[in-house]
Design goal:
With 254 residues, the chain is of the alpha+beta class. The chain has 6 helices and 14 strands. The protein folds into 2 domains: 91 residues, Phosphorylase Kinase, domain 1 (2-Layer Sandwich); 122 residues, 2-Layer Sandwich (D-amino Acid Aminotransferase, Chain A, domain 1), CATH 3.30.470.20. Strands 8, 9, 10, 11, 12, 13 and 14 form a 7-stranded antiparallel sheet that branches. It has a 5-stranded antiparallel sheet with strand order 1-2-3-7-6. Strands 4-5 form a two-stranded antiparallel ribbon. β4 and β5 form a beta hairpin. The chain is globular, with a radius of gyration of 18 Å. The structure holds thymidine-5'-phosphate (TMP).
């Protein structure tokens, strides 16, 4: 088969032209970066696992009527997605203090926040993705006030749903990052969840031991990175070793 035309290469994924207009193929690499690509490495099998994990979570979110760009998984490393206009804002939700909020505000890592906090970062590598307020986003026209209403509403629903889903398999959803895009269909425009949801952009802690099961193992050189990503997939019931017919639902933990 002729190789598809590459449209964009990011740090962890590549986007190719899709088979039909309005579609793209999202390819998941094993490459990992941290601290705006100052730290680079490879996590063997990460692309395969993130492809599966993101497929699973986006399909679950679609079941509760969260609109997403996901269409279907094509193979081990690729998924077919709808082409959207990415809004250049990273939306972070935090349930427990960790990472940059702990550093910036001096809140010890592991402190449960009084309520879930949404933060916005401007997607701009040259500026190191600076934190911004909704004011900047609407004033500079990166998104409109109605777009932001949709984004905040969707993000809170995603957080509620994913927190429960992960808790059911013994994982605490500490925080995560999502991105949204504008999907144009006929005359209509809808804000949809885009990018990926995987241990690359979530903090996932084992509920019993608080052991980290996400990219912080790479960022902080904690070792057992591949094992952690595999364990997340295993608990969700989606380890790729299982044949399609053997795919089961999540392992519910007591
Ligand atoms: P932070 O504590 O470093 O701000 O990260 C918050 C969450 O966002 C965490 O789950 C990791 C995720 N994240 C990304 O997905 N991409 C990024 O570039 C950064 C900085 C964080």
């Amino acid at each position: 088969m002729a190789r598809r035309r590459q449209l964009y290469e990011g740090k962890a994924k590549i986007l190719f032209e899709g088979p039909e207009p309005g579609t793209l193929v999202q390819y998941f690499k094993d490459d990992a970066t941290a601290f705006n690509a100052q730290k680079k490495g490879t996590i063997t099998g990460k692309g395969v696992l993130n492809n599966r994990i993101s497929e699973f979570l986006m399909m679950k979110l679609a079941e509760i009527n969260i609109p997403t760009h996901f269409i279907r998984r094509l193979n081990m490393r690729e998924q077919l997605i709808k082409e959207v206009e990415i809004i250049p804002v990273e939306v972070v939700v935090r349930n427990i203090a960790a990472g940059s909020i702990s550093q910036r505000l001096g809140i010890p890592e592991g402190t449960r926040l009084p309520r879930s906090i949404i933060e916005f970062y401007y997607k701009n590598d040259a500026l190191n993705d600076p934190i911004v307020a909704e004011e900047h986003i609407t004033a500079f026209g990166w998104a409109t006030p109605p777009d932001m209403d949709d984004i905040v509403h969707l993000t809170l629903r995603i957080n509620d749903f994913l927190s429960g889903l992960f808790l059911g398999v013994g994982i605490t959803l500490v925080d995560f990052k999502v991105e949204f895009g504008r999907l144009y269909e006929n005359e209509d425009m809808r804000i949809v969840l885009a990018d990926e949801i995987s241990p690359d952009n979530c903090r996932l802690w084992d509920t019993k031991t608080n052991e980290k099961m996400d990219k912080d193992r790479f960022r902080r050189d904690l070792g057992k990175i591949e094992e952690a990503y595999q364990e997340v997939a295993r608990r969700l019931g989606i380890l790729p070793e299982a044949g399609a017919r053997d795919l089961k639902g999540p392992d519910t933990m007591q």
